[in-house]
Amino acid sequence: MILIIDFGSQFNQLIARRVREHEVYCQVEPAGFGIDKIKALKPEGIILSGGPSSIYEENSPTIDADIFKLGIPILGICYGMQFMVHTLGGKIARSSKREYGFATLNISDEQNLFSGMDSSLQCWMSHGDSTESLPGTFTVTASTQNTPIAAIADTKNNFYGLQFHPEVEHTHQGKEMIRNFIIDICHCEKNWNMESFAHTAVQEIKDAVQDKKVIMGLSGGVDSSVAALLIHKAIGKNLHCIFVDNGLLRKNEKEDLQESLTTHLDLNIKFVDARKIFLDALEGVTDPEVKRKEIGRLFIEVFDAEAKKIEGADFLGQGTLYPDIIESKSAFGGPTSIIKSHHNVGGLPEKMKLKLIEPLQLLFKDEVRQLGLELGLNEDLVWRQPFPGPGLAIRIMGEVSEKRLNILKEADALILEEIRAAGLYRKLWQSFAVLLPIKSVGVMGDKRTYDSCIAIRAVNSIDAMTADWARLPHELLARMSNRIINEVDGVNRVVFDITSKPPGTIEWE
Ligand code: XMP
């Protein structure tokens, strides 16, 4: 396995993705991760990530210098390289200027990390400080016009450093550099794939749960569905899933889920019809945070009441993914908060004294999708766009009523139908309808109308932390607008949201 030490780079998860693309398992741990823990993991190689700090800053991230005595190959990227050079006796020059963007890398030593590469290729730079002199055992292996020491190697100790970022797409052959490090230099075995993962995970769940019961809340999203399938594979009917129908779901969502997970995959799911409870509670509520809190509170109440009916449950299953875990552990820089008050089933374990089973906690989202397909989940569910816990309530500006919910559901279904037909559903991060709190005047068939307005929201994103509004083709927008106005009763105007995040958020509330 490869151990990645997170020095706070926005790209550290990308490094992990790259390693796993070569079917090698890796783990990201924060700066300061103890040397004993490192030894216990028995990594075959260590990657020190980049980061926004200068090694001269007070409290800049570090790792025990004894890692350089372990006899394990080490690759330092950007700040990671500077940390290595500085720690081993070289000199880093401070700079107030940042070098940022594309540069041409001229490789002088086409071996090891650069084996099989072109002698000149494009790389991506993002750094302030740079290396001025090297520790005696190192040589320079590549340079750029602005950065004479752009790559270094100490082949005797198998220490390598790259001032640029091999993990980003902008660096040509960066993936191969990472491959050369993990396969040729560290001699890692290619044994990380979803089939072997599922096999091990099922055995681990069996050992942990034995003949006890697991409760699990399903949201309709891919994470909880895949986690449930994996647990189901291990313990069968001892997995008790609960799906709370809060009435704030998209059109046909519950039925699709029922068909896919119960009929085809035989999951044991209790569908709780709580539509009236949620609608009653939301009556007259217009403040977004009050809506969210109320929905969160009710969800826990309903789930809790249902869970208590299941006797002898010792465990709670959750679909937590690896990025959530990395983020909560990240000591430097990394995005540590998820902006709005998201509710999942947090809070429950403590109250109910349940132990957690989180079988996806080592996986990235695309690995979860792969695993879902492996476990027989249908493609629609596997590729489902994210949907927020509070559901359509936060896409209805103003009061949530049954009538307004129905308008939104119909408009939303039409948007998704057209987005799918245009082949854009998987390409977009999210695409949906928002119902605005205003009415406007229109004219239809010679008659004056005074009806509601729908906003179309479509965004591209890789992690929801930032997002760009999608440049949908005008013909597609025209079709969606026509269909919504003609087919959805109560709507006479459609607008398109052209706000990115930041400054907007993806959802409107
Ligand atoms: P925002 O609107 O904050 O959304 O840009 C970022 C991403 O998170 C989703 N989202 C939620 N997901 N519970 C969830 O499980 C929530 O309360 C929640 N609020 C927003 C949103 O759909 C987008 O993908």
TrEMBL record:
Domain GMPS ATP-PPase: residue ranges: 192-384
Keywords: ATP-binding, Glutamine amidotransferase, GMP biosynthesis, Ligase, Nucleotide-binding, Purine biosynthesis
Gene Ontology MF, one: ATP binding
Keyword ATP-binding annotated: yes
Uppermost EC category: ligase
UniProt GO cellular component terms: cytosol
Active site per database record: 78, 165, 167
Catalytic activity as recorded in UniProt: XMP + L-glutamine + ATP + H2O = GMP + L-glutamate + AMP + diphosphate + 2 H(+)
Record's keyword annotation contains Nucleotidyltransferase: no
Residues annotated as binding ATP: 219-225
EC number: 6.3.5.2
Database matches in Pfam families: GATase (PF00117), GMP_synt_C (PF00958), NAD_synthase (PF02540)
Pathway, per record: Purine metabolism; GMP biosynthesis; GMP from XMP (L-Gln route): step 1/1
PANTHER family xrefs: GMP SYNTHASE [GLUTAMINE-HYDROLYZING] (PTHR11922:SF2), GMP SYNTHASE-RELATED (PTHR11922)
HAMAP family named among the record's database cross-references: GMP_synthase
Cross-referenced NCBIfam families: guaA_Cterm, guaA_Nterm, PRK00074.1
Subunit structure, interactors included: Homodimer.
Described purpose of this protein according to its UniProt entry: Catalyzes the synthesis of GMP from XMP.
Name by which UniProt lists this protein: GMP synthase [glutamine-hydrolyzing]
Organism phylogeny: Bacteria, Pseudomonadati, Thermodesulfobacteriota, Desulfobacteria, Desulfobacterales
Gene this chain is encoded by: guaA
